[in-house]
Amino acid sequence: MDILDFLVPQAVFTKVKGGAKRTLLEALCQKAAPFARLPEAGLFEAVWEREMLNSMGVGQGIAIPHGRIKHLDRMVGLFARLESPVDYEAIDGLPVDLVFLLLSPEAAGADHLKALAKISRLLRNQKVCEKLRASSDSAALYSILTEPAANAQAA
Question: Per the residue annotation, which of 21, 66, 81, 118 is the catalytic one?
């Protein structure tokens, strides 16, 4: 599985306004709705329900919110570089400025877990995160997220 399997260039955003965690997730689900071809409310409900079980703020300024979505026919990814960090209740207590939202079909099972692992490995790479934080262009962010070298290290 590759990031290219669920992330398109149009689903990479810069300077996203955050505010509170809930507000941020609502905004991201609103942005993801056209790619998922489903109403944003259903996306948000699934992501928020998962988030209430355990914060997906994984540390080092990174969050990977995700949800399994009824009636979704394929995995959908969305990446956002926030305008300013948001308190996300991350495991290390640090605010979040890089967010990768993953939406998967309800029955995705192992594919959902493989995609999460791929995203996690990619964003644990400090050099990748430094590049993401240094860029303010969506096309450049997409290139960083999907470049073969970064993905080979995340394999």
Answer: 66
The answer to whether residues 9 and 142 touch, using CB atoms and an 8 Å cutoff, is: yes
At a CB cut-off of 8 Å and minimum separation 6, what does 110 contact?
none
- Look-up of token digits 């791929």: 118
What domains lie within the chain, and their CATH numbers?
A: 3-154 (3.40.930.10)
Give yes or no for a contact between 86 and 18, defined as CB atoms under 8 angstroms apart.
yes
pLDDT for the residue numbered 19:
84
CB 71 within 8 A of CB 108: no
Q: Is 71 annotated in the active site?
A: no
Q: Under DSSP, is residue 26 helix (H, G, I), strand (E, B) or coil?
A: helix
**66 touches 103 (CB < 8 A):** yes
Only one residue has tokens 């990031």, namely 3
- pLDDT band at residue 32 using 50, 70 and 90 as cut-offs: very high
